[in-house]
Protein: Protein-export protein SecB
Amino acid sequence: MAEENNQAAQGQDQQQLQFALQRIYVKDISFESPNSPKVFQEAFKPKVNVDLGTHSTQVGEDLYEVVVKVTAQINHSETGNTCFLAEIEQGGLFRITGLQGDQLDHTLGAFCPNVLFPYARECIDNLVSRGSFPPLMLAPVNFEAMYAQKKQRQAEGSETTQ
Structure:
């Protein structure tokens, strides 16, 4: 009898906690090569600058949009001229039930971006190749560490305002 109650309680927990990826999509995309074709006549000596950010929004009951924004600006290391600028906002819709507070925040701030980043990475590489530049293979990103740093900055900020 106790075993059946325990199994029923576990079944309820499993039903309550749900995580489902509904859709992955490109929200915004841009590629600029303002110094073409001159940039192709010079030796390619790139200086790479990559910015990365994430944000999430609740768009319905238990439905969340998470966006990973990647901006890659490549300049000529000697002249400083822009070779290209590639930017993408990779979005995803996630249905998440059974999580609240810090657990939900962690899932939206670290786990979901980990799911989306490979798609953003592939898209940036494809844009750069279509622009006739050498491939730009972005390194994997540790969104867990980024999330932890964000939480630490928030904690330090709240300590200084008290």
Summary: The chain has one domain: 18-135. The CA atoms of residues 118 and 140 lie 8 Å apart. Helices lie at 2-16, 101-130, 143-161. The mean pLDDT is 89.
